[in-house]
Amino acid sequence: MTTWRLLITPPARGAWNMAVDEAILHHIGRSDSPPTLRLYAWTPACLSLGYAQPFADVDVRRLQAQYWEVVRRVTGGRAILHTDELTYSVIAPNDEPRVAGTVLESYNRLAQALLLAVKTLNVPVEMKEEKTSEKSNNPVCFEVPSTYEITVNGKKLIGSAQARKKEGVLQHGSLPLTGDLARICGALVFEDESARDIASRRLLERATTVEAALGRRVGWGVAAQACVGAFEARLGIHLEEGRLSESESNKADELVREKYDHPSWTERV
Asked: Is the pTM of the predicted complex or chain greater than 0.90?
């Protein structure tokens, strides 16, 4: 059985969270770090933009009024407000069998682990397997489920995105545990307030949280433990809890300073 590293990191700023994922990927590319499942959270709340998403989607004044931060991901997709959630990242070499093959093949394998994790929490979930033909100009990630994403009664529960680099594969995603998913619309630009209200209602019709699905709250630690067990069972791996190496930590600090906290990256599109 293959051993992967399990990293459970404390709640942190968005810039640091994104820098850590990339720092691990950098070290995996040098064969200095093992395949890693990382589980984490965010403080303060942070809006993350997809790699190619226009910064003009952000209503900076409203964002700052909420004391929220903003960061740009290396993965694609649309905006996510990270708060009241469990975030996971899977980082592994390109030749690691669990992430090898096409994007959809690897996405499917990891989705099977995520599906089991939320089933362990007694959430009545299913996997959306058909490709969506729906188009939307809404800048919010959770509005439309993609292939192999996890849904409850047709509502999207987990949003994931993957980047493939020469160093390896990075996939991360968000499992909202509680809270009002429509809060994100207060930090994005819309044509007028009517459009904002429509987008908020549409989002709540199409996305959900663990609490909304179950009618009760599930703690972050309980959800994290469900992920650990499910990833081991579905991927046939042993997860051994570890920590960031000094070199990974230093690289993450460098990436915060030079990339993720810098307008040249965050506002580059």
From this structure: yes
